[in-house]
Please model this.
Amino acid sequence: MGVSFRRLLALIAAGCLTIAACATQSAAQPQPQAQVQVAPKPQPSIVKLDSGRIRGLDDGTVRTYSGIPFAQPPVGALRWKDPVRVTPWKGVAEATKPGRQCTQMEAGKQIGGEDCLYLDVTAPAKPSRKPLPVMVWLYGGGYTTGAGSAYDSRRLVDQGEVVVVVTPNYRLGAFGYLALPGLVGSGTFGLADQLEALKWVQRNAAAFGGDPGNVTLFGQSAGGMSSCALLTSPATRGLIDKAVIQSGSCMLDWVSGTYVPIPGMPSFTPYSSLKASQGTGLAAAKKLGCAAGKELECLRAKPVSELMKVNDSFASNLAYGTPLLPLDPPQALRKGRFARVPVMSGGTKDEGNGFIAGAAQAGYPVTAENYPQLMQGAFGEHADTVTREYPLTDFASPGLAWATVANDRAWACPTLEGETAMAARTTVYAYEFADDKAPNISNISSDFPLGAQHASELPYLFDLGGRPWHGLTPDQWRLADQMIGYWTSFAHTGRPRAAGAPAWPAFTPSGQTVLSLKPAGQGGIGPADYRGEHRCGFWSGLAD
Model:
């Protein structure tokens, strides 16, 4: 095929979904013509942490503290070890610039570094009379890309009066998810970094006016999958009080071709057994010339540039059967082995459109000729049945037809299954972001509408790269305000409410109410016919 499955997976996922490209695209949008106003110069703001004092900035609306170390640099002997609590410092450390990103590739170039365990905090400038809820954000990027500093949370903080830790970085790729026989922490170093950040919040939230007893974990894509996994981890007990899972259900399940539309591509899920993860690690070590039985010693001696040659092998290598994840997270949900905290869960209506279009842009289009092959590779003996349910004649293009199959089978219906499992034991609020005219977050050209593709809700919640997304219409900005109201009220009380927006009923296994989030011009916010639109009855019947 000329390219490995995991390499292609990583390349497509890293289009704009790293957010770095999104930020660049947002900056390139035509700037609105408006009278220039000179903002007041931010003033220094000093807080005392358990590790020492830091100096951030107060711009009159929010206080920001950037590049705060929350663990010792995982370098040298600490490479592939669980994070170690940060060493205290003397004096006042500057916290006005983001810390280094974790090692990753961007536009074909290696960026960041191993010394990357930093986080950013944004808090209201005006002190509150009572402690405010804390929100901890885990970014997406296929476990191989991303950085917390790309997500400016000032609108969440200003409009919702929450303290937002935006966000901890966590180790990526080979550095975060290497597994080898006998290596303590195998396959979960990135998850351990996230847990260390949550422990840091418990010790330091009060310094920013936050309530360590009211912490909401929220994340998108790989960050959502990590958030869902953390709900099933015994190590999370007492660290989170609520969770928001965005496009990252534990149940996600990409059968062959539904992520990368190439016949014969393997199926995969967000998590990997420890044995399989160790196999990936051993294969990577062998590729780099490490002798059998000496893999860890050999890999620890390798420079970063060498390890990056195998980095994409770890795009989906978060391991279960480990101390942090004893069970495969989807099985943990089904068995009720997860934290019984309120959960918001959902995704975007057209999750797979950008991935299918991205594959076409990379030279792997879906055509009328290969559509039957994709069906056969994905569904085997059921291929004809699925083809009758999704005939090419019902769609404007073969790419849109296959994207719809992927949206329903790999994304939407597994998400519904996860919500149903959680709702049997805790309070769940389910949503679907459904703005058909959402911005082209992936910056991908396509012969079919991309719609509400994966990650397209992010500009409604964050200023990506520090700038509002200038392509949004007033109607979309109104939706953004409503979404921020829902997200932050959930952080306050565990019940999503927003001024001027419809009430959001809880999801129940029998009722299965999913709230559709779209602008007023497209019908506004209201209940979605989620199960019907995504044909989940058909897919559950096929599984039976």
Remarks:
- Confidence is low (pLDDT under 50) at residues 14-21, 30-36.
